[in-house]
Amino acid sequence: MRHRIVIVLLLTLSLHFASASALHAATDVGVVRAMLKNGLKVIIVQNSLAPVVNTQLNYLVGANEDPPGFPGTAHAQEHMLFRGSTGLSANQLSAIIAALGGEFNADTQQSVTQYFSTVPADNLNIALRIEAIRMRGVLDSRRLWKLERGAIEQEVAQDLSNSEYRFYTKLLSELFHDTPYGHDALGTQASFDKMTGKMLKKFHHDWYGPNNAILVIAGNIDPEKTLKMAREVFEWIPERPTPPRPAVHLKPLKAATINLETDLHYGLAVLAYRLPGYESPDYAAGQILGDVLESKRGNLYALVPQGKALSIDVGTNAFSRAAFGYVAAAFPKGNDGALLISTMKDIIEDYLKNGFPVELVEAVKRLEIANEEFQKNSVEGLASLWSQALAVEGRNSPDEDIEAIRKVTVADVNRVARTYLVNNTAITAVLQPRPSGEPVPSTNIRGKETFASRRTRRLSLPAWASKLASLPASPLSTVNPVVTVLPNGLRLIVQPENVSGTISIYGKIKNNPSLQIPKGQEGVNEVLNSLFSYGTTTMDRLAFQKALDDSAARESAGTSFSLQVLTEHFDRGVELLSDNLLHPALSEDAFKVVQQETGGALSGLLQSPSYLSNRALITALYPKNDPALRQATPDTVAMLALTDVTNYYRKIFRPDMTTVVVIGQVTPHQAEAVIKKYFGNWEATGPKPETELPPVPPNKPSSAAVPDRSRVQTSVTLAETVGITRSYTDYYPLQVGLHVLSGAFYATRLYQDLRERTGLVYSVEALLDAGESRSIFEVLYACDQKNVAKARAIIERNLREMQTKLVTPEELLQAKTLLLRQTPLSESSVEDIAEKLLYLSLEDLPLDEPVRAMKRYREITASQVRAAFTKWVRPRDVVQISLGLNPK
């Protein structure tokens, strides 16, 4: 479960739907919408990317409707919907979620609570029945709330350990004090301690009626048949009246300053203003205003190449009656954040005086319009697009936003800017980085267990989910790429997809800075990657960005690179990408700026808690002088010359070490022709470099604690080196075992023992990071400091049980099912498909490895799982690194 820091709000919703008896197709191709007899609004959107479907049930209730004195009520009820309903116990729900692939989640926003699922398309009926049962009623018993309260309070501690989240809550309070917008959805420990199951049950009854919900279904489905299914599943639930919603009375904004310490390795200077909300006719102009301010051709971003800021981030967050926008400039530790705020205010004043350039306004409008097309490249993204437009913004279709954007003029943007960007009432903030103390040996790392485990046994499922009781057939993959190796060695992988009028490129140059950076030049790779944003030998920074904007293209360059472009601009987009990769400017002036910025960032990084905890981990895992322990410092960066950067570039950037994945509305022949046109003359010199680190011996057990005064919760990593690599056959039974331990919420051992039954943690994950030459086994969790040893003891006991006892038949079936479901679910977005193909290629694995793996998983036995854990996992040899307020 998740709750979003980016909050959206809706107080009133006015949608125009057909009644259930008068279904009509939307103007959007492949979209059907209807209102059922009980008031439930249903939107069905066809997308053929993969044999999956995403459902999003949006209840029009959120933090705004929290009862006075009980912040977090909506968030608590979101959690409790996973604790069981009449006719569907929590154990049954967890088992069904696992059997469907584990892709169920939820979040609570300011005005909406959303329940998500991504499941195989032929299991849609089961996903809908889950939501119908939970809509009809919820248990919310005193006992169940007591169990869940510990977990949700750990979520509170997790977010309060994030300095950016703490800043966000203070910013909301200053912008919208004494209104429902003045607090987010998370809640507080004090509120949860007072809350009762009876209160939550009433909240569900008041707000979870079908007439207060919008159901969005997107995927590879027949829209009209799906609507018939939705009627059968939901229409029997009676509508319920909803209470009146709290009024929002905005008060005049007053200037305020927020000063905070942060455990980030850089500081943040922030400038925030109110903007028009969803209800305002100026909402679209406000969004375009934010985009113009963020443009890399704008005067705010110019602070980066001028050496005055490490980065610039501009964002907006909208509610119904109001929104806010912010400019956040990162600066090196020790610099003056207040001076940076003053500089940003001067830039804003200049824009207000002289107006925004027409061409910038038109450029960001093109990008916004193209972005809607890009969102079709993800089944979940498409469903979210409709949920956002209808449930959050109160539109009738996402097209309404696009039409509003098309109508925005530069005069509109200037008028909104002069109305809202008032520096005298702006909220300003400076987050100053604070160094961490050095890691110290930790004590009392092993605790005692306080209960006996209860392992998953045979569970009776409802009749409508009974087909999930057996192992599913191996799903067919829809990914069938065409592979070509160009004469220069570049490997091209093409996957045609026709879900949108776009083409995407994802690429990577195989490299390893730990092995390839000359001694004494540590940091040269970071400097090089930062220089790609400074233009090419034929176009300076602004001209190159303008060329991208003219095509509404999104591009990034470096050893990892990408391009997203509309189909009609594919040729031009690849031309620009190749120019950036093959002919970067690498100018002396840009080098001096980037060198200074990189050194400044490193000075803060090396003292930051996150760096020190990771450094303590790898130092404990790897032998002395291992290449992975090499570290850039301000001194090594200061010693660099531009020739070092250019020499490193020539050494690393080679076509025979490069893989390019092209995916989208393109044929293999078209893609090959364009890639050859712009990358065919790229040449490599000399032998291929070695990029694989040497194997490492087993580590010795140790522990260390890194203090971080900004945290209220201790984050713990348990890790060890393991002798297995990705090519070993034991990789597969280990994966099955890991899916017995975690990966499916309450249905897996670690979640049952650490969250469901004890409330010690909010989340826990066991994973194996297997490479070609070395691998790491890890368990990650976070909890109150007093419970660190207790949680570790439970984890160690679970690992020992994996070695001494056979997993139950039910656990084995569940783990295999989870792994079998991963193939179709992982193909539900263009980016996921491309990244998977890229990973397989770079790891020298067959591109059909997911299909081959399914065959292996089907045959794995409980004895093989136990044998693999016995051979490779050493529970007593883990390294423990704790990061927290007073870790021990």
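That was protein one. Protein two is written in the same sequence-then-structure order:
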Amino acid sequence: MAAEKQITMPVLGMTCANCVATVERNTKKVDGVSDAVVNFGTEKVTVTYDPALTKPEQMIERIKKAGYDVPVATMELPITGMTCANCVATVERALNKKVPGILEANVNFATEKATVRYIPGAVTRADIVAAVERAGYGVVAADSAEEMVDAEKLAREAEIRDQTRKLIVGVIFTLPLFLLSMGRDFGLLGAWAHAPWVNYLFWLLATPVQFYTGRDYYVGGYKSLRNKSANMDVLVALGSSVAYFYSIVVMTGLLGGHVYFETSAAIITLIKVGKLIEARAKGKTSEAIKALMGLQAKTARVERNGQEIDIPTDEVVAGDIVVVRPGEKVPVDGVVVNGRSAVDESLLTGESLPVDKKVGDAVIGATLNKQGLLKIEATHVGRDTALAQIVRLVEQAQGSKAPIQALADQVAAIFVPAVIAIALLTFVIWWAGGAGFTPALVRLVAVLVIACPCALGLATPTAIVVGMGKGASQGILFKNSEALERAHALQAVVLDKTGTITKGEPEVTAINNEQLTTNKSALNGSNLELLRLAASVERGSEHPLGEAVVRAAQAQGLSLSEPAAFEAIAGHGVSASVDGHAVLLGNLRLMEREHVHMNGLRETADRLQQQAQTAMWVAVDGEARAVIGIADTIKDGSKEAVAQMKQQHLLVVMMTGDNEATARAIAAEAGIDRIFAEVLPGDKASNVAKLQAEGYVTAMVGDGINDAPALAQADVGIAIGTGADVAMEAAGVTLISGDLRGVPKAIKLSRATMRTIKENLFWAFAYNVVLIPVAAGALSFFPGLPIWLRELHPIAAAFAMAFSSVTVVSNSLRLRRAKI
């Protein structure tokens, strides 16, 4: 039985002693928990448990089932010293299994960060850092979020400088050593090159490379073995050491034969070259998120005590009035309180056209004010701004693991021991087969050096990081890697109508038989006057249809009159006197009630209703003069988005609460063939399930609170970013801009990312599956092949290994140029 442990967790929602007893009783029901004591004063529970039988996650789940909550926090730690996938596994094991209070720790090899979910109060940052350091790795330390970025950048740059310095030393000593050795082997240097002292010269040249340039491999290998695992460093240190120390034995005369000092030096130097290129390339994988972080304005101009002063953006507080001049960045999220302008939001939303802003409109921090001066009231600052939340969401998503990575992780866990076993077997077979000790040893070194676990570890995370960064730059946010992976397999997309396909607010589309446009000359004079009269009646109205009429008149530049004798007639419409005319505005029932002469306009009204529009009648002085068509119009880009999804061979379905006829009219306009009409809000999820039952991998796209269950039911939930927070919480993908064209973009990006991951995994597996047997001498029995293939030299093996992981990272970087 394992030694019992104690953990103290905060509990939210307790209001009385009965709550205390409930929490204690339910916690004790978890298998492995021997005692649970709640301190009502501090609202914490201290649990004594057997770690072999239960974990804190199970206790938290039980407490939540009882109706209470245990808050969980997330922390990101930049890790230094990792060299391959086994290092990732070592750090994860050190955190997940050895630190009480950590619920989950995921390490991303591409970004070299650990994302840690932990229980506040149960574990501190210092505890987590200490566990990482005990495992043999480092953590970049910083005091604040900004310093963390700077400290991390400085640490990465210092690491690259150190590696560059070691590489330069390696090249300085390896190049003459290699040239002298080859010159001697090919008889280009004369008899002196075979003198015994030349081997000592080779030894002097090789030693700095072995123990200075190659020091990291020895240190990393030792730490790995100490943690009862084996990583790439073990293979490199083992392979180069065999060649180096064998050569010392030959040099001292204990054995006869050829020295391989140039081989040990070349192995270390070539792999160091590859690792340096890989480190620089890995830095580029997260450039998109770094670019987002760099968008934040450094200073803000605020009004305080009647004066405008410039202060650091970090010092802006909610409620401050911030002045933003043309050409300046909006420093924080806020609401416009004075001025009009156009704001470029393209870097955050992917929208190319500037967005007009007026008093009352929300603005996002880090966007660019293009034209007029704006005064905004700060609403969200610091870590609460949209930009900060986007960066945090993307970083958390990048730190998650895609399901496709599971196979690579399983292979990586046993890879190095398997390679060592293959290398030893190779040596035994060739030596026992009569090839001689030295040729057998050369093949052993080649097998050790050519094997590359790094490519396996980098295949998935590098592509995920680049893909998610690319998405963020286009206004597409994936909640986690699983959502990114699932999206590539979609077969059907369900679109909620209101607010997703349509704008979600009514607009005037026609007056009588004339389509309404922003061009004043598009309406004849009589229709313009009728629109003016109708809008004058509705002036100050809060009814959505009335507001739509007023907006239409304002867009036409019409001057409205003040209505007199205004009367609202429930269920029918309104009446008023405008400029001496008795004006009625409402439905057909109002016209019939007031015995209005219809003037043959019924046909116009019927036609509008067949087109899924609301017909609003206008009567002047007892005679029907116009029928105004009002509809929830389709968003710009909706038709294009549907067409693009069809090109992606997706079944596109519209879901709405409208009746069948109205739904079909809107679907036809959008280019959608299949509909779910007359759907109650509570039935949306069951309609998604119906498609899934038909065998479709289904996405749901919505923006409202009542869409949340359907978003959760779908294989991939896609929330429109202009909608409700609860919808975004339930979704795996969020489109910041609210543009439906983001849906085919997200699917295209997912497919491109998954294609890259599969290419990377194929390369990583194929490289090792093919070249390890070649290094072991599998091609020796084919005399027609070149000698360098039949007897693969360890230097060639080192070259191949050095650039195998570079190939994977470079392939992932191609995603940055992908067109979505």
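Residues 239 and 290 are 38 Å apart (CA to CA). Keep this in mind for the problem set.
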